[in-house]
Design a protein that fits this description.
single chain; 281 residues; alpha/beta; Ubiquitin-like (UB roll); Rossmann fold; five-stranded mixed β-sheet; four-stranded mixed β-sheet; 21% strand
């Protein structure tokens, strides 16, 4: 038989209460300390101005509208976490990847963006814009109609004036379902650059409505060149160069009164669509 001492039981209850109280106080202390530390960090990061972006540098804007770019940048800087804290104004927390993705979407004419942070207050943004390779004019197409600038990678942007000239590559696409095709663009660019080396300048390339590989190019010489993607483009250019070199030696027509003599060779068109052959009228 065991004998229980009532006084001993009361003593143990008091000891247990003291231990629970001490444990609760410790937990409360550490919770309070944690809240205080978090509060201090939040204050330091977002309310004290210690790491606030105050020096903002944006370089490289030319084609891009500067006001629109800064408006998009300010949207990112003024965005709020939980609708309360403007966390993107902190130079360390500023989300460079999301910002760049937003800028690429808003401004397709931007090729590259570099963001560098210099704590405590500086944010530097360097923009590299796409180099304009030419103007591609669409009719009623999924590309949106009208004329757009494009670069060598086939990326289009903006609205360009429809024009024909010899200083920039112009493509007039008559297809109703026209879309910029990289393979076609590469061939047109090759032709355009090689012709300039021959001192032959085209005002534009014309892709017909029923395009199946043939296209034309009016030249500054008053005649039209006819090419085909079904034949080797480089061979078409080679035979054209040989053909034009031979025609340069033709005698000039007799000069009219007060006018210089004109070359005898003055075709309406030169057809290069069959490899190794030249047809002209």
């Amino acid at each position: 038989m065991k004998i229980y001492d009532g006084k001993n039981i009361k003593y143990q209850d008091k000891l247990a209460k003291k231990r629970r109280r001490a444990w609760v106080l410790k937990i409360s202390f550490f919770v309070g300390l944690f809240i205080a530390v978090v509060g201090f960090i939040l204050y330091l990061l977002f309310f004290s101005g210690f790491l606030e972006i105050k020096e903002l540098s944006v370089n490289g804007l030319d084609k891009v509208n500067g006001d629109r770019f800064h408006d998009e940048l300010n949207k990112r800087l003024n965005s709020k976490w939980l609708g309360l804290i403007e966390h993107q104004k902190n130079v360390l927390i500023f989300d460079s990847d999301t910002f760049k993705a937003e800028m690429f979407t808003a401004f397709p004419e931007i090729r590259q963006i570099s963001v560098s942070k210099e704590p405590p207050h500086a944010l530097n943004i360097d923009v590299t814009e796409r180099e304009t390779a030419g103007v591609w004019c669409f009719t009623d197409s999924p590309a949106g109609g009208g004329c757009k600038y494009f670069d060598k990678d086939g990326v289009t942007w903006g609205e360009a004036a429809k024009s024909s000239g010899f200083l920039i590559l112009v493509i007039e696409d008559m297809r109703p379902d026209a879309q910029l095709n990289k393979n076609l663009l590469d061939n047109l660019t090759t032709i355009y650059e090689q012709l300039k080396k021959m001192n032959v300048f085209v005002s534009k390339f014309i892709i017909p409505k029923d395009f199946i590989g043939d296209f034309n190019a009016p030249t500054s010489g008053g005649y039209e060149l006819m090419f085909s993607l079904d034949s080797d483009i480089n061979k078409q250019l080679e035979v054209l160069e040989i053909f034009l070199a031979e025609k340069k030696d033709l005698p000039a027509l007799p000069a009219q009164t007060g006018q210089a003599g004109e070359p005898e060779f003055s075709p309406q068109y030169i057809d290069l669509r069959i490899n190794g052959r030249v047809y002209y009228k």
